[in-house]
Amino acid sequence: MTTVLSATRMNVLGVLACFTLCLAAADRTAMAGEADGPEVVIKDFMFAPMHVTIKAGSKVTWVNKDDEPHNVVSDSGLFRSSALDTDDNFSFKFDKPGTYRFVCSIHPKMVGTITVE
Ligand SMILES: [Cu+2]
Predict the structure, then answer these.
(1) What was the pLDDT predicted at 7?
(2) Domain co-membership, 16 together with 73
(3) pLDDT > 60? residue 55
(4) For 34-45, what is each residue's pLDDT tens digit?
(5) Are residues 24 and 51 in the same domain?
(6) For the chain, which terminus, N or C, has the lower number of CB atoms within 10 Å?
(7) Same domain, 9 and 32
(8) Ligand 1 mean position to 105 CA, how many Å?
(9) Cα 103 to ligand 1 centre (Å)
(10) DSSP class of residue 86?
(11) 75 and 19 within one domain
């Protein structure tokens, strides 16, 4: 009985240790991703920030923090994400200077702009 209990405890510790390590690794990935370009958070049926200015060659990542699915669709047809569930993300790299308007086609009142310099 004691053996079974301590084996269980060891397993719990192992799982916890792995979980902590995985979280730390995920954190580092998120930080590395940020270096590539800004993040637009989708929350409360809005893009935040609504307007982003970047240098040509930078990547923008949209992350859905709502419980509703949203998507990111370029006005000009340059990019279109699938429906993003909670915590899903979509990235696009902007190579050419210009102004790029985007919308959530599920909720067309959700709009935003990327300005590429
Ligand atoms: Cu939406």
Answers:
(1) 52
(2) no
(3) yes
(4) 447 999 999 999
(5) no
(6) N
(7) yes
(8) 7
(9) 8
(10) T
(11) no
Task: Extract the tokens encoding 15.
Answer: 């799982």
How far, in Å, from the CA of 56 to the mean position of ligand 1? Answer: 27
Q: Which domain holds residue 69?
A: 38-117
* Whether the bond into 97 is cis, omega within 30 of 0: no
Integer Cα distance of 4 and 55 in angstroms: 59
d(CA 116, CA 114): 6
Task: Find where tokens 């192992």 sit.
Answer: 14
Q: What is the DSSP letter of 82?
A: -
The two tokens of residue 42 are: 């989708």
* Cα of 39 from ligand 1 centre, angstroms: 17
* 43: CATH: 2.60.40.420
| pTM confidence score | 0.70
Number of domains in the chain: 2
What spacing in Å lies between the alpha carbon of 32 and ligand 1's midpoint? Answer: 27
Is the domain of 105 the same as that of 115?
yes
Residues 64 and 104 in one domain: yes
Do 53 and 26 share a domain, yes or no? no
